[in-house]
TrEMBL record:
<protein>
    <submittedName>
        <fullName>RNase III domain-containing protein</fullName>
    </submittedName>
</protein>
<dbReference type="GO" id="GO:0006396">
    <property type="term" value="P:RNA processing"/>
</dbReference>
<feature type="domain" description="RNase III">
    <location>
        <begin position="3"/>
        <end position="127"/>
    </location>
</feature>
<dbReference type="Pfam" id="PF00636">
    <property type="entry name" value="Ribonuclease_3"/>
</dbReference>
<dbReference type="InterPro" id="IPR036389">
    <property type="entry name" value="RNase_III_sf"/>
</dbReference>
<dbReference type="GO" id="GO:0004525">
    <property type="term" value="F:ribonuclease III activity"/>
</dbReference>
<keyword id="KW-0378">Hydrolase</keyword>
<dbReference type="InterPro" id="IPR000999">
    <property type="entry name" value="RNase_III_dom"/>
</dbReference>
Length: 228
């Protein structure tokens, strides 16, 4: 397949075509001593993707604790996520090697590595321009990231609704900040959540409610005061 087809698909035209070819060259390929190979780019691309993913989470307005942020980042940047993208754009068809390409890419990690090397190639070719790399990154990963993030971020609300009765919610905005009061089971005082969006405030309230019930399970006593 011609590399210009890939450039059209990802919405980026390389200034240095050799860098694009290098990103798809296995180290054992007979011409790799001339072209170079993708291995160094894989490590570089991993770091770039980690940064862009953190940027995405920040722009999304996520305001969770460190553990949840780590879990979200891990889910967004795992091999299965990148495998889906690499498979969608048929990146394996551009791979230069002297062996059975189909057998080689039976392992999802191999396609994920290829995706990482492509991102690194874009970053380097654009003179290390994060805005340009970010544009390609979100064009490829944007829709999938939205789905993964929504599925993961809604878990606290889903868990609370599954195991407890939410009587009702109160929502209001105060000086640009969202505040949500969630009334659960027979508890008189609400669990109050805060956030830069209504969803974030609801998730904050749900997380506080779940933590309350977990603590209750540990002590076996009713916790009278519910802290914000």
């Amino acid at each position: 397949m011609k590399f210009n087809q890939l450039e059209t698909a990802i919405g980026y035209s390389f200034n240095e075509k050799s860098l694009l070819i290098r990103a798809f060259t296995h180290h054992s390929y007979k011409y790799s001593s001339i072209i170079g190979n993708s291995q160094p780019l894989e490590f570089y691309g991993d770091a770039v993707l980690d940064y862009l993913t953190n940027l995405y989470l920040f722009e999304y307005g996520i305001s969770y604790d460190d553990k949840m942020l780590r879990d979200l980042r891990s889910s967004l940047t795992n091999n299965d996520t990148f495998y889906q993208l690499a498979d969608k754009f048929k990146l394996n068809m551009y791979f230069l090697c002297d062996f059975d390409r189909e057998k080689y890419f039976q392992k999802p990690k191999k396609l994920a590595d290829l995706f990482e090397s492509l991102v690194a190639a874009v970053y380097l070719d654009s003179q290390m321009s994060l805005p340009k790399t970010r544009k390609v990154f979100f064009k490829l990963l944007g829709p999938l990231l939205d789905k993964v993030l929504l599925d993961i971020s809604l878990k606290p609300i889903q868990e609370l609704m599954k195991n407890h009765k939410i009587r009702y919610m109160e929502r209001r905005v105060d000086k640009g900040h969202f505040i949500v009061n969630v009334y659960v089971d027979d508890i008189e005082k609400p669990f109050t959540g805060y956030g830069t969006s209504c969803l974030n405030a609801e998730l904050d309230a749900a997380t506080k409610a779940l933590n309350h019930f977990k603590e209750l399970d540990k002590t076996g006593e009713k916790v009278e005061e519910i802290e914000d």
